[in-house]
Structure formats: structure tokens, C-alpha cells
Protein 1
Amino acid sequence: MPWDLIGHEWAVSLLCRHIQTRHVRHAYLFTGPPGIGKRTLALHYAQALMCLEPAGDEIACGRCRACRQVRGTGHPDLHIVTRAEGKSEIAIEQVRELQRQISLSPLEAGRRVAILADFHEASDGASNALLKTLEEPAGETVLILTAPSAESVLPTIASRCEVVTLRPVETEAIETALLKAGASDEQARLLAGLASGRPGWALEAHNSPPAMEGRQQALTELRSLLTASRAERFAAAERLQQDDNRTKDALETWLSFWRDVLLVAYGAEARIANVDRRAEVERLAQEIGPRQARQAALAVERTLAGLARHANQRLALETLMLDLPRLRGR
């Protein structure tokens, strides 16, 4: 397909049509969960907007100097804004510097393109500063924002953008991409199932063995918690809260596992994600039944949602520990 993306054909067709009909919007908001391909799509769109030798329906040739520069994020008319390392937000100073740069005429391309990645992490000041640019867009600039959802940025920002919501990619397409990337059949099947439609996540996991080691550790810990005492569960909650990234990764792994248990408990024919743990999933589904499996999945979902809203982490994790099913020790 054009742009060599994994999935998202409809989004590519839409953006290509904008270029072909000369109806490129001044601002876009690409939304979807982490790893689904928002930033990759943004870079490909920037390529298409700046290509020196557009070819047919594909728009961007992928070979010219401009395409190569955009691919390496080194084009002088491409500006990428992300949260600075060690900072908790995109700062207002970053947006003001971007405004200064895009106020200048393009150096090489016919327009300037700015990608503001994960703009839900912007400070209130940065968001409000960007509003002026969105309200009074420069004719030679295209802004591309990315965020998990339109609701995660200011309504006044989302309303001034063309919102492109990326949908989960088919498991088979992700599995094929993993095989092309060198994954074994077994690994491709596992990662494609765990990805939940996120090709970027699957490829990153394939290239990062520690991520899969963390998954195994999280599942092993979950299994031990089901037979643990209340004191042991609270101790586990304390360990989890020491690292925000580990907490989120572990809870997402647990949620994937409980969903599999729920599917099997209800006798659903849908493919489970944790195919390497099928025997354990089936055993647990038979042992606790669909009601407890559903309660466990909902408890993890509530905890993730609460942490995303900056709820008290320790209280949220301790509550989760109390909500997990309790099995007799083996």
C-alpha cells in the first residue's frame, strides 16, 4: 500500500485525497492508543507534503532528498515538538519557539510541517499558546498533533483540527509484518495477539526482549498473588508503585490475561492474546468461572482508569489487590 504502513489504509487514502484535491487542512489531530502508528502516519504525511518528485497515487516517492530528510527527521522545514527528557509536560517555551520558526518562510519545501507528538502532555500554558496559531493559521504551515483521544486535549484545540482516529489494525496484518521483520512463527503469533491492534507496540516488543521479560514477570507475579495473603498482596502493591512505567505495563499485562480468562470462561471462540499461557488460562477459567473473571478484569480496568486520572496510586493498587480472586494455595 502507499507509504508502506501496517494497516490504516482508510487514513492514508483520506490524507492522499486531501493532497490530490488541494484541500490540505491547516491542522490535524491523529488519535489512538500508544503504539498504533500515529507518529509514523504523521511522518509519512509530512513526506507526502514535502516530496520533490510525487509519483502517482502514492504521492510521496520515498526516494528524493526531501523524503529521505523527513524520514530521518532532518528536513529544515520539518519541526517536531515532544516533551523534553526529564520534564513532565510540553512547555509553553517549546510552543513559542515553534511559533517563531513557522512564522518564517519555508527554506526548501513549499510549506512547513510541525508534528506535536503526545500533545495531551502539554501544559495549560502550551495548549493555550497553540490556540492562537490554530485560530490564525499561517498559509504555508501544516500542524499535526497526536494524542490518545480528542478528549485528552482542550476542546478548543480538537475543534480546530481535522481529527483522524486510528483504529486497531487486524491481527493478521500485524503478524505478517512481524514475520517480515524476522520474528519466528510462534513469536509473531504471540506478539500480534498481545498487540491489541497496535503494530508499533508489536514491532517494539519484537526488538526489545526486556519488554517481554517484564511481561513474564508480571504474569508470574499475578499468579502468585491469587494464593497470597492480604499482607503479601499489600507488599506487592508497594513494590508496584515504585515505578510508574512498570505499574502501567504490569496492569496492562494483567488486563490482557484476565480478558483471555473471561473469553475462555464464557466459551467464546475468539482468539486469546496470551497464546503461550493457554493451559494456565483454561485452568483458571474453569476454576473461578466467568463471574469472577469479569470482576477481575473490571477491577484492573478501574485501576488503570484511576491512575490515568492521577488517583492515589497506593490506595488504587491496594484496592485492586483486595478485588483479585483468591484461590487456595497449591
Protein 2
Amino acid sequence: MRIFNDRAQFFVRVYNELSFATRREFGPSLYCGFNVLAEFYGWDAAASSTDLVLIKQSDEGGRFMHSSASYHIKLVLDVPPCSQYPCGMSIGLSQLEQLVARAGKTTNELGTLVSLALSWAFDTACFRL
């Protein structure tokens, strides 16, 4: 998340996967695995951001029974120009909420992050800014 013109904006990326019904869906700015925060196109997001809220969520069962995922909404202080990242876009929370409501447009991970952004915990974190 960044603050732009006194409004919160969220950067979402386009992901192409054969398993998606529409072949493309919007997802989170950054996926990380195995406790490694990867650089996002040569920009170190971890160095220029602060966690606003985070949750840890476990999977229900099956082959992922012992796995868990951490979801973070970070306030990014030093944002590179959006033109540098043609694979996505920055949108406001209300637009993001509308996008998630449309089937086949967003990944499950982005849906989880949007529900976190619409939560009381997020509101509380933003008041502390």
C-alpha cells in the first residue's frame, strides 16, 4: 500500500497461469516463499516498507495440511514510479473491493488480503499513521 494524493492505493499484479479459468488474474504485489522476501523487479520492498497488519493462516487439510501462509499489508514509503512496473496497477480500496467481487478476476491470495484491508485491524493500524 502507498499513500498517493492523500489516498491509499494498492499495487496489484497480473498473474498468468494455466489453472486460471480466464488464464489471467490479479494477485498481490508480491509472492514470497520459503521465508525469503524476494526483490520485486530489482526494488527491495522490505527495506522501504512497514507492516500495517499481518495474519498467519493455515490450510484446511489435504496435501497442504501442514502448510501456512503469512499475509502482510505493508505501507511502502519509497515507491518507485508505477511506469516501472507494467505488469500491474495501483488502485484504491473501493476499486479493489469491486474487483474481488467479480468471479475469476482475482487470486485467492488477493481476496484474503482485501478482506484483511477491510478489517478492523487495518482501520486501527491506519489511525496510528
